[in-house]
Design a protein that fits this description.
two-stranded antiparallel sheet, 2 strands, mainly alpha
Length: 134
């Protein structure tokens, strides 16, 4: 199943990617900071809880990666996604600087853009059209 989408139909795969992107948006870009154009999500808010918040956010990022693997994402794509999630989790753990990094880096959105592009290269259309750049 390396890089193929045989286990799921194209429609199921497309809908799964759209569902995962919704979770990524919730985690990384669900809200606008009042008085700015800066978007943030639950990742930044959860990350305010010392240690536990970063672990919880990291687990959610891991879930997104696990789902991508279940959909048949190849190892090279999973490796890129893991790298993004590790950067977000490790650097996000630093007080204050890490919180700002969480708001700006948006690992979950990056990972879902990678997955969507890969899926669409294989001819699977995802609801919502083209890849959104964040």
């Amino acid at each position: 199943m390396h890089g193929t989408y045989q286990t799921f139909s194209a429609r199921e795969t497309g809908h799964s990617v759209a569902r995962l992107e919704a979770l990524a948006r919730l985690m990384d870009a669900a809200f606008v900071l009042p008085g700015t154009n800066i978007r943030m999500g639950l990742d930044a808010l959860i990350g305010l809880l010392p240690v536990a918040g970063d672990i919880i956010a990291g687990l959610i990022s891991s879930y997104l990666i696990w789902e991508a693997r279940q959909l048949g994402a190849p190892r090279w794509l999973i490796a890129r996604m893991v790298t993004n999630a590790l950067l977000d989790t490790v650097l996000g753990a630093f007080p204050l600087v890490g919180d700002a990094f969480d708001v700006m880096f948006r690992a979950n959105m990056k990972n879902m853009a990678l997955l969507r592009r890969h899926v669409e290269k294989h001819g699977i259309t995802c609801p919502g059209g083209k890849v959104q750049r964040w």
